[in-house]
Amino acid sequence: MASVNYRSLAADILEHVGGEENIVGATHCATRLRLKLRDDAKADTAAVEKLPGVITVMKAGGQYQVVIGNDVPTVFAELGKISRFGKDDTAHETPSEGNLLNRFIDMVSSIFTPVLWPLAGAGLLKAFLSMGTTFGWVAPTNQTYIILSAAADALFYFLPMFLAVTAARRFKTNQFTSMAIAGALVYPSIVAMAAAGEPVAFAGIPLVMMNYTSSVIPIIVAVWLQGYLERFLLKILPSAVRNFLTPLLSIAIMVPLTLLTVGPLTTLAAQGLSSGITAIFAFAPWLAGAVMGGLWQVFVLFGLHWGLVPIMTTELASNGYSLLMGPLVPAVLAQAGAMVAVAIRSRSAKRRQVAAPAALSGFLAGVTEPGIYGVNLPLKKPFYFGIAGGALGGAIAAVGGSASSAFVFPSLLALPAFTSVGSFTLQLVGTGVAIVVAFTLTFFFGPREQADDAAAPAVDRPAGEGAAAPTESAPGAGTGSVKALAPVSGTVVALADVPDKVFASGAMGGGIGIIPEDDRVHSPISGTVQAVMKTGHAYGIKSDDGVEVLVHIGIDTVQMDGDGFEAAVTRGQRVEAGDLLATADRAKILAAGYDSTTLMVITNTKALTAVVPVTKGHLTQGTPALDVEL
Length: 630
Fold this sequence. Notes:
By secondary structure, the chain is α+β, with helices and mostly antiparallel strands. The chain contains 21 helices and 20 strands.
């Protein structure tokens, strides 16, 4: 299948199933492109089956399933380039694990990933400009400075519009409609109404305005809701008006809805937060400093910091200084310190390339977005360690009564603003402690990550593709054999008797099925994990000898959307034979009406001499199940 033109194949499939307008939804599993069609009669199944690269077509579970094999992620990715479908860039990844907070962090991090390098570049430019004004190299009124400042600030100011694009890809919405919604949030008149602080109403309904520039969560929530609205509209609107009415109604509904809901909720939360912190400062400055130092970056993430900024500016206007700003330098530089530890410790060159410049922009200009969203937040522990360091450092700074005499971005270059009020010594001590704590904890207890070359697919392919491609030439043909071990204990089922015609036909390769007696599924070979389906039901492993094994838990269990499955490995991870791959809840599988048979298939069988089942009857996990002749 190496000679298949995947883009042409995707286009041909799209044409023969009745075009994009005949597709309600698209996804894929380990081997199949799964389409939900409006009208099955419009699909030319015979023509689809004749396409080079297509094994067969199945219709089951209300889906039109185009069986492609291991290269289905490639075709799915190409489908995304020519239609609004196929844009699930996480199809090869482990499903989000853990609690709601971890899943939220994973989602936000994935949305930020495509804009990390521009953020890093703009952050460094801001750092250099800040250095220039601090040392008197250039005046803030200089026209050259103003132009460069606009270049550096634009990405941060209009951040919601950039996130609209990546969120649209994540939630499968029309990205240009998403950008229009984001554009409305940062439209000059909207920003002006928020700054004026005067009563605002929409159709007689009072609006609580807030500043959405540089915000993150509001546009992500808006695009997420847009996805549901768009799918509803596409389903109910007649085809003659669908193309223009869907974006029209999406924009007309989502912009007011976002302003009516997200704005008030965020503003109320910010007001409550600011009142609480101000009150704490009155009787326990160390506690207020710990809260500000530890959670400032969290406040920024949710846009709650906008409720504190007016208090800071009011303090500056009335007192000539702001106590609330004292703990912010430790808060910001603690995160930068954690970034430095990641830059030193991580084995991933790609991660280091983001962490190093992000740390520099954090230290010099207080710009942490590139590092927060590209380093600390995705890795989780560095972000938590930064919170710990910031809390401790913020408490120390607040105890000394440290305050800023000017509204500045918390950074090393902004430290002169903290010299005239309170103890500058404790400000420096608090900042140093914050950096050291975050750096030390991250360095010794943070994740090391795998080297990039270890995580890379064994076969070169376009970005975003996860499964290993079938090998056309035999991987050491005739040079020996490999024993594939039983991934689970249970009763052997001949592949021909498996209740799935694609696997039963041998089109995917030779192998066996096992009716499992245990919920734990293990690796049948030693090698590298090439694919982990986001639903957790299928895993591709390639051995050091070039044998490619697909372990597929249950029949058609992709429909369970990950419920009952928990992955224990990630793509690119090295595993040994017998290592745990996943846990599958057999009771849930059976209760959902699916067959729990676990399949073990050698997907590059055609490149090998033979694939022979070792035994019939019962197999114990870890004992030889297939004899693979190279």
